[in-house]
Amino acid sequence: MTIEIKVPALGESVSEAVIAKLYKKVGDAIKADELVVELETDKVTLEVNAPANGAISDLKVKEGDVVKVGDVIAILAEGAAGAATSPQINENKSTKALDVVANFLSPAPKKIATENNVDTSKIQGSGKDGRITKGDVIANIASANNSVTSQASVSDNKQIERVRMSKLRQKVAERLKESQNTAAILTTFNEVDMTNIMAIRSEYKDIFEKKHGTKLGFMSFFVKACIAALKEIPAVNAEIEGTDIIYKNFYDIGVAVGSPQGLVVPVLRAADKLNIAQIEKGVSELGTKARDGKLAISDLQGATFTISNGGVYGSLMSTPIINPPQSGILGMHKIQERPMVINGEIKVRPMMYLALSYDHRIIDGKEAVTFLVRVKELIEDPRRLVLDI
Q1: pTM score above 0.85
Q2: What confidence tens digit (pLDDT) does each residue in 310-319 have?
Q3: What is the mean pLDDT of the chain?
Q4: Which of 11, 37, 265, 314 has the fewest CB atoms within 10 Å, counting from its CB?
């Protein structure tokens, strides 16, 4: 009996992926749940495993191919015997275990190596037990680029380097442009005085971490403030579907985080049901999974609203792009001390610019401004969050 191994569902609004790595070739034996292929989308890396024991009788794709949901990747001859596959290791018994470890690539260096066509077998790992690290791969790429540049003609003192965009970067560019082309995006700005939130954090951070086992940051306060504002201005939590407006009475908040794949937006489920500690733990866990390349498709689906913190990279102000099919995204920024007039007196206050990008097809300017002012009020006086006023 033959079984078609197909591209699985890739998640909300994701219809195609790139064949990042094939782990089997035609004729190879394979066991049930053994890895066949690694797929990459603009959001996440996804592993496809064998559904049964057997042998690979045909491969329909090669590394670098773009595939769509439902495309056949390989044909499995169930129950058939095939050639055994095992890693190439040094025959010296004393170094066999070390060779296997050294040839292992964690998600971050593997992703960079795949996108830049780096032959990792030629890299000397600097990590524990000879593991190849992200830094090793980047150093190898830099060395190769320097070598190419040194051989190039520079008679006019103008040097260029042409690098083909990865499939994933092309897809990110396509989705961002699609967002701009589809939605009527406007951005409204405000600024928030972080004095009270910073005072709370400074006073209670040690006690909080000791009790809850997680650090007290600012994101949990902004998640709480946004949810309160979303309940008052439901259009910001809605989406357009054809000629209908879909109002959502649940609050799954996307939190943008950096990862080896670039910016991803994992989702904090039912965030309105979580307390401050649970939000901080959830955000921390999602961030760790993103950096380790362990986000699942389910972690990235179905957010109703997104918060992005460009301030962690030093951004003072930006206009975030809406993540379709959502209708709004809040941009947090760097906290910077500025002179402010308080009750007729000039005082130095830690200020943060806030930006709300919104789809004007569904959200009116008044609603957008009201939403952002509400967030500002709640952050500046966090007692309102506790009293729900």
Answers
A1: no
A2: 999 999 999 9
A3: 85
A4: 314
Q: Looking at the domain covering 95-151, what would its CATH class be?
A: few secondary structures
Residue 80: pLDDT band with limits 50, 70, 90: confident
Q: Among 76, 71, 74, 75, which Cα is nearest to 17's? A: 71
Question: Helix, strand or coil for residue 206?
Answer: helix
The string of pLDDT tens digits covering residues 166-180 is: 666 676 677 778 788
Asked if 358 contacts 366 with a C-beta cutoff of 8 angstroms, the reply is no
Question: Domain 2-78 carries which CATH code?
Answer: 2.40.50.100
CA distance 99 to 87: 9
Q: State yes or no: is 212 an active-site residue.
A: no
**How many residues belong to the chain?**
389
* Strand 244-246 relative to strand 335-342, pairing: unpaired
Confidence check: pLDDT of 145 > 70: no
Of the ranges 15-24, 148-157, 359-368, which one carries the lowest mean pLDDT score? 148-157
* Terminal Cα distance for the chain, rounded: 65
Q: One of 33, 129, 292, 360 is an active-site residue; which one?
A: 360
Per annotation, catalytic residue among 42, 364, 381, 388: 364
Taking a C-beta distance cutoff of 8 angstroms, is the pair 107, 81 a contact?
Answer: no
Q: Each residue of 206-240: pLDDT tens digit? A: 999 999 999 999 999 999 999 999 999 999 999 99
Q: Cα-flanking dihedrals φ and ψ of residue 123, to 5°? A: -100, 130
3 state DSSP class of 64: coil
Residue 226 CA to residue 56 CA, distance in Å, equals 51
- If one counts every other C-beta atom within 10 angstroms of the C-beta of residue 159, the result is 9
CATH fold of 183-387 reads Chloramphenicol Acetyltransferase (3.30.559)
Q: Which residue has the tokens 């593997």?
A: 110
Asked if 237 and 251 count as a contact pair (C-beta separation under 8 A), the reply is yes
For CATH 3.30.559.10, list the domain ranges present in the chain: 183-387
pLDDT at 127: 67
Rounded (to 5) percent helix, strand, coil in the chain: 35, 25, 35
Domain boundaries for CATH 4.10.320.10 within the chain = 95-151
